[in-house]
Write a structure and sequence with these properties.
The complex is a heterodimer of chains A (about 110) and B (about 110).
Chain A: E1 9-13, E2 18-23, E3 31-38, E4 45-50, E5 55-56, E6 61-64, E7 70-75, E8 84-92, E9 107-112
Parallel strand pairs in A: 1-9
Antiparallel strand pairs in A: 2-7, 3-4, 3-8, 5-6, 6-7, 8-9
Chain B: E1 5-7, E2 10-13, E3 19-24, E4 31-37, E5 43-50, E6 53-57, E7 65-68, E8 75-79, E9 88-95, E10 103-105, E11 109-113
The chains are: A mainly beta (about 110), B mainly beta (about 110).
Chain lengths: ~110, ~110
């Protein structure tokens, strides 16, 4: 699976949009981009995933660049409860990987009042 | 919304003892996983399970570890003879009917080895 690079930490004001970047310059054609977050020591929580088109759900939006070498997770109106570690993970769809997720250090997002 | 449940939330065990961690995956999911997270470190993959057999395992998952899906609903991780370094959060996850479907995690079992 391709390696990802994320900033170690980011701050955001409550009510503003949080834009979390991720670089995955070695991504290959059959690899998807997944975003998870982990609040305190709870289990990782799935947020969103995509292949090449932008995606939106009730939690967030995912913007993937046309060359697929980077992506941005957008939390449109951050709240204090969005303070967490956010993980960008690239994973092969299909093949022999059976979908294991390889977690990096992620980005610690701190939302301030 | 369906969720993955894990029991117990905290397990304290003497070194050398056997421990079984239990998970109830989401009911129509077919892919099952165990991960662990040592305090302050990254979440690490241990094993994946599909069609009643291990599909992949990491170097961490040595002969002391085993997994089982005994009754079609529970998914268990057994550590045969625990070591101090097994102390960690253990997370179970399950995934839907296609490998690109997201995995959903339980809230984990904190395992403390004394």
């Amino acid at each position: 699976d391709a390696k990802t690079t994320q900033p170690p930490s980011m701050d955001c004001a409550e009510g503003r949009a949080a834009n979390l970047p991720c670089n995955h310059s070695t991504i290959s054609g059959n690899e998807y981009v997944y975003w998870y977050r982990q609040i305190h020591s709870q289990g990782p929580q799935y947020i969103i995933h995509g292949l090449k088109n932008n995606e939106t759900n009730e939690m967030a939006s995912l913007i993937i660049t046309e060359d697929r070498k980077s992506s941005t997770l957008i939390l449109p109106h951050a709240t204090l409860r969005d303070t967490a570690v956010y993980y960008c993970i690239v994973r092969v769809g299909g093949g022999t990987s059976y979908g294991k997720l390889t977690f990096g250090q992620g980005t610690i997002l701190t939302v301030h009042p | 919304e369906p969720e993955v449940t894990q029991t117990p939330s905290h397990q304290v065990t003497q070194m050398g003892q056997e421990v079984i961690l239990r998970c109830v995956p989401i009911s129509n999911h077919l892919y099952f996983y165990w991960y662990r997270q040592i305090l302050g470190q990254k979440v690490e993959f241990l094993v994946s399970f599909y069609n009643n057999e291990i599909s992949e395992k990491s170097e961490i998952f040595d002969d002391q570890f085993s997994v089982e899906r005994p009754d079609g609903s529970n998914f268990t991780l057994k550590i045969r003879s625990t070591k101090l370094e097994d102390s960690a959060m253990y997370f179970c996850a399950s995934g839907g009917t296609g490998m690109v479907q997201p995995q959903h995690f339980g809230d984990g079992t904190r395992l403390s080895i004394l």
